[in-house]
Amino acid sequence: xxxLVHIMKCKDKYQRFVIPIFYDVDASNVRKQNxxxxxxxxxxxxxxxxxxxxxxxxxxxxxxxxxxxxxDSKNFRPxxxxxxxxxxxxxxxLNRKSFFHLEGLVGIxxxxxxxxxx
Length: 118
What we know:
This protein is mostly helical. The protein contains six helices and two strands; from the N terminus they run H-E-H-H-H-E-H-H.
């Protein structure tokens, strides 16, 4: 949960892309914290009942991420098609973004080539 909160803060602060992937869970269940996903979230809330601020921050991050346009694994079979579509999506977003911001980043060219190979 802490990682998701951090990701969403970076999205807002640095205008980063966030592409949620809903693997074997429906985005509406994440947004509403119900069904099987909700059961796990109830346990998490119970574990952190002494820190309601942290629970609320996590809840907000979940809702915010579930409201983003993302990928749903149940729409792709085999899973390799999902991976291919995600890679294509990321590459198209990277190509739209100015590479001026990437200047001086050590190893970025290698990482982009690695991503393209997937």
